[in-house]
Structures
1.
Amino acid sequence: MIKNLLQSIPTDLTEEVFETLAMGANIKIERIISKGHSTPENDWYDQEQDEWVMVLQGHGILEFEAGKELEMKVGDSTNIPAHTRHRVKWTEPNEETIWLAVFYNS
Amino acid sequence: MIKNLLQSIPTDLTEEVFETLAMGANIKIERIISKGHSTPENDWYDQEQDEWVMVLQGHGILEFEAGKELEMKVGDSTNIPAHTRHRVKWTEPNEETIWLAVFYNS
């Protein structure tokens, strides 16, 4: 069975949409769709697992508590080690940003 | 650090190019670049792990020993359970096909 990740975009994007694509032993593959969403100010993701993430469509900015920002465009990927506090600072308001994320244990 | 998966394509594509993007406990994320490559006839991948795979660029056809074929275009993803014998039947000869594969334990 094929699932196209650039299609079947939910019409209601009031909230970010998280969808599990595959799940295994201590690993989850997720599609996340944002449209102008960002993490609330001073709110940080502090995850138990490593996260490898890429942008399939759109454009977003990740901010790290340590100070760095990463501007992520189509095809860009990065790895966020467990407990590396970060947030989504900005996503494109006029187009869906489609993230692919893999959560795993290092 | 950002790595763009649609860029830094090796110039020598005599053989398919496999590149590990991230690795954890029983999980590997890999970029595979094909250009007209296919698995030899009657040769099947028979993998110990599940594989979730998608096409980031290009076009390929997966064939399963059980008889099914999956034509995979940009954005298409599928999940191949462990020991599901399959091969790459065809990839676009005129353009690089970029696959993203996650190998994991179910």
2.
Amino acid sequence: MVSKIGFIGAGNMGGAVARRLAGGGHDVHVYDLSPAAVQSCEQAGAVAAGSASAAVHDADVVFTSLPMPEHVLATWTRLAPELAEGAIAVDVSTIDPGTVELATAAVGEHGHPFVTCALGKTPAAAERGEIPLFVGGPGDAVSALRPLFERIGEATHRFESAGAAAMFKLISNLVGMTNVAVLAEGYVLARAAGITPEQFGAALADTGAASFQSQVRLPWLMAGDYEARFGVELAAKDVRLALDAGARQGIPSPVAAQGLAQLLSAVAHGYGGQDAVAVAKVLDPDGKLLGTTDD
Amino acid sequence: MVSKIGFIGAGNMGGAVARRLAGGGHDVHVYDLSPAAVQSCEQAGAVAAGSASAAVHDADVVFTSLPMPEHVLATWTRLAPELAEGAIAVDVSTIDPGTVELATAAVGEHGHPFVTCALGKTPAAAERGEIPLFVGGPGDAVSALRPLFERIGEATHRFESAGAAAMFKLISNLVGMTNVAVLAEGYVLARAAGITPEQFGAALADTGAASFQSQVRLPWLMAGDYEARFGVELAAKDVRLALDAGARQGIPSPVAAQGLAQLLSAVAHGYGGQDAVAVAKVLDPDGKLLGTTDD
């Protein structure tokens, strides 16, 4: 049914999704500014497109996976007139509902539906198709995409609209990343009280402070491993977008706002490219409690 | 070995522990200002003591389980001279390390060891002995108490000192209750975006925002059930004590500090006696998003 897929943006998550689709026998035409990113998709069976326009040409479904909402909106605004008749626009980036609205209007002007398919979990899980999808958009388009969604992810959570799906994804990162920020505070307090990393980790798992983040990121903090699985800068972006979307509706989110302040502080200190758990470093500038020198 | 146990304070958690000990065949003498609290322990086989002094008289081990650090310190200061020779002082309240230090000195002056045995989870779990214990104090005393700990809880997490154990418990509540505060923010943002409670709950479990609190308290928030399992006022107390202990060591915890501000705001709005999840109400004063009128 879907004979050609265009794919714009083959970064960590986008590349994994493009490879997953190509590996499932789909004819995927990938465009990315980075030749290396495109090559890794070619190795999985995708076709390299010379330009975004070439990727989109005659495609039944076009995906975008781009870093910032501005990129997503600019891309759809430029490509909307070039979409093939009946083509469905799908964004898998993490963007705000305001941008979803504008992108929906941009492609809608040319008769195309816009679908949000926000991606959960990690690039490694995405390579295996083991991620949750947060999906919203016109019902016909979402139904037509179902076989692709089943190849990309293992659970599809359906929302009333593309904007609601995008907002949900932002909210989940707002909550998750603020959980990281306060977990980092708890860890630093514990170290200052002479509690060892091992004591803290073992005992915390047995309390109401346990979380996905304490299971996954606390061991990295304990080991001084700040390699970015989800970087501080990206985390700050998502929390900022969620807060902004909430503020436009008059909703205060003061705890998450302070979480954002800490993430931005970590970026200002030069940790933007490290994992979100590096937010702990701003609480311990000389590294005595975290057992790491400033790097 | 332990022939008489004195127990001061038979509230929700303390009462459960006293009943657990009495039900295990120990000779437990309970004192509480509330006759009803004492009666519920008598039904489990405990003896009612006419006064704190009577509970303590000739006891080998004396427990305190009291609401505030001030109560714990005042009680030990007053009772220290009355403790039987060799008696061990054990506090199961949630108190700060500064108070632990003062109480240790107060009983130490009369030759008695002071042990912290902070309790995890809920009163219901405590009745079944299915709680984690966070224990610290002099090694000999902790060893002597081991049979009692095995009756009270199912896992004993050992810390270097009574103060470290107390601080750990405060930190776990600081993290857990701040997780609740930001979860509440995420929930209100989701409702404002038109996401249903059920969509939010199901999808969130599949993200990095999942936590003990989202598993346990989010269903209550979705159902508008604010019955206190752990009340806003108690939560605020613990986060305040943790922050104060950290601040004394020069440790900033800005996200948790904003969490405390939200809990205190909920208290100021009259929700102090409701469950901690009622912190959501201050974000939605007219109850439109939470689907509840102000009560």
